[in-house]
Design goal:
This protein is an alpha/beta fold and 258 residues long. Helices cover 34% and strands 23% of the residues. β9 and β10 form a beta hairpin. It is globular. Pfam families: ABC_tran.
């Protein structure tokens, strides 16, 4: 068994309604799986189950050779980190950036107090935020900068799997590009294993190695990125691609700093 993520027969029900129906999915180590599908298809539910935020009714989730328990241990929670669409969901507005990063580092025993500041500065540098940000608060930053800080916080505990749930959709287009470029560089630099959710096919094409398609709580297609974008196996996959607007050449060529 590889050291990636493995899901078998994962099922979630809400009040008798099946939100996830016997999901079977593998994400190989050091690869990114892009998860697509219309709103309400179950993408975010799957992400939250993998992150341990929702307990499934049935099924097995394993990271490498270790099955993840329904009640995750501290060590298991450390291995999977999630980045949300709105960074305000993960950044406590009452804490400074120093406190936000230090909290995770100390909780999981990543560094001693004597090494906290240096580690915090390294994390900010990794996401291209100046070290002077340490004693400022989330509301003092733009949306793109807050998302970068949220990424730094997720990376602080050195997770084995990073889940990104629509991490660019709340940002302006030019800022989306710079954050997406950050994800791409981090993927290369850190050999990340990622589950990346987006409704934006351009984002999925840029970041993914494999594409999985969800519809009505089921996985209806899994393909390499190249195969999916050239010739999807399902009519629904074609429908998703045909809904992508044709943008003028050069629309995404500009690079702005958030």
């Amino acid at each position: 068994m590889s050291h990636g993520l493995h899901i078998e027969d994962l099922t979630v029900r809400y009040d008798g309604v099946t939100a996830l129906d016997r999901i079977q999915l593998n994400i190989e180590e050091h690869t990114t799986l892009g998860l697509v599908g219309e709103s309400g298809s179950g993408k975010s539910t799957l992400a939250r189950v993998v992150a341990g935020l929702i307990v499934p009714d049935e099924g097995i989730i394993s990271l490498g050779e270790e099955p993840l328990t329904k009640k995750r241990s501290r060590a298991q929670r450390k291995k999977i980190q999630m980045i949300f669409q709105n960074p305000d969901a993960s950044l406590n507005p009452r804490l400074s950036i120093r406190q936000l990063l230090s909290e995770a580092l100390l909780f999981h025993g990543i560094v001693r107090r004597s090494g906290l500041e240096q580690r915090c500065l390294e994390l900010l540098a990794r996401v291209q935020i100046d070290g002077s940000a340490l004693d400022r608060y989330p509301h003092e930053f733009s949306g793109g900068q807050r998302q970068r800080i949220a990424i730094a916080r997720a990376l602080s505990v050195e997770p084995e799997l990073l889940i990104a749930d629509e991490p660019t959709s709340a940002l302006d287009v030019s800022v989306q590009l710079s954050v997406l470029e950050l994800f791409a560089s981090l993927k290369q630099e850190l050999n990340l294993t990622m589950l990346f959710i987006s409704h934006d096919m351009g984002v999925i094409h840029a970041i993914s190695d494999t594409v999985a398609v969800m519809r009505h709580g089921q996985l209806v297609e899994i393909n390499s990125k190249e195969r999916f974008f050239a010739r999807p196996d399902t009519a629904y996959g074609y429908q998703l691609l045909s809904a992508v607007p044709k943008m003028p050449a050069g629309t995404y060529s500009r690079r702005d700093t958030p």
